[in-house]
Design goal:
With 177 residues, the chain is α+β, with helices and mostly antiparallel strands. 27% of the residues lie in helices and 37% in strands. The model has no long low-confidence stretch (mean pLDDT 96).
């Protein structure tokens, strides 16, 4: 199947975009840092987004575009297959980071290379902006961490206090561009 990847403008970001998108994940195990070591623990839950979560995402993505960041989407058969965004604010002790703020692939199309392509598009944009690294406050599920590891991400040299405070169970990662 052909997948089209395009950069979104803020007028393209709305609730209708997500009408057939399934942000659903059954989680059984997660990564946690305990006594300075990363371990995998049992932590079963189901993440299943509804209207409220998508409304918040629409607001965030519009803000990303309005503040100079980027949002890419992948479409397959006229349906949203995935999306990724990055923010336009440098941070870190050397201003080395730009943030990969989200990356999602609809449940039924995962493991088909869509997330990898979206990740690479964000990397290309960040390189053009002059970033040294992407910063990712990433879901701690084993599946999500496997994706980031496969992409070459490692634990962040510097943790962003804001990200740690907002999502204390996330894994703080970076990708050297």
């Amino acid at each position: 199947m052909n997948t089209d990847f395009i950069r979104l403008t803020d007028n393209m970001i709305n609730m209708e975009l997500f009408s057939d998108f399934h942000r659903h994940q059954v989680v059984t195990k997660c990564h946690r840092k305990i006594n300075g070591e990363w371990v995998v623990i049992d932590n079963p839950f189901v993440e299943d987004w509804g209207e409220k979560e998508f409304e918040y995402l629409v607001q965030c993505l519009k803000n990303t575009v309005e503040t100079g960041g980027i949002v890419y989407r992948a479409f397959q058969n006229s349906k949203l297959a995935g999306l990724a965004s990055a923010e336009n604010t440098f941070f870190g002790s050397r201003g080395q980071y730009l943030e990969l703020s989200c990356i999602h692939v609809t449940e039924e199309l995962r493991d088909k290379g869509i997330g990898k392509k979206l990740f690479r598009l964000i990397c290309e944009w960040a390189i053009e902006k002059g970033a040294e690294r992407l910063y990712i406050s990433a879901h701690s599920s084993v599946e999500s961490q496997s994706f980031y590891k496969a992409m070459g991400c490692t634990e962040a040299e510097e943790y962003s206090p804001v990200h740690v405070e907002n999502e204390p169970c996330d894994c703080q990662l970076e990708y050297v561009l």
